[in-house]
Amino acid sequence: MGILDGLLGNVLSALKGQGSSPEALGETLNKALANTQFGSLDGVLSQLQSSGLGTQVASWLGQGDNLPISADELRSALGNEQLQKLGTQLGIPMDQVGELLAKVLPPTVDKLSPDGMLKPPIGPTPG
User: Mean pLDDT, to the nearest integer, of 80-98?
Assistant: First the structure.
């Protein structure tokens, strides 16, 4: 798991390198997601909800503990092609994207949604 932990550290560093505010983290994720069919973090959350993972998403947006999500659940909900595109944007090997996203997504969404809704990204969103 050392390689996975190293990759996770690199992703977190890349995300945090854009700034320490939740808005900057959201902007970085939205940029990485722009080349996927989801287009943004909101799009990913909508897809997860429509794929039967609404309870997990609600826990990340709401108060209290964040429910986990597995790499397999993410692959099933988002699709391998879209995860590959995201991995390319973040510089992560395809076979690691699901696991890394499963670790990063719940706490990141939690930080970006102090009032139960995602804060809008800074700057223009890809259209």
Answer: 87
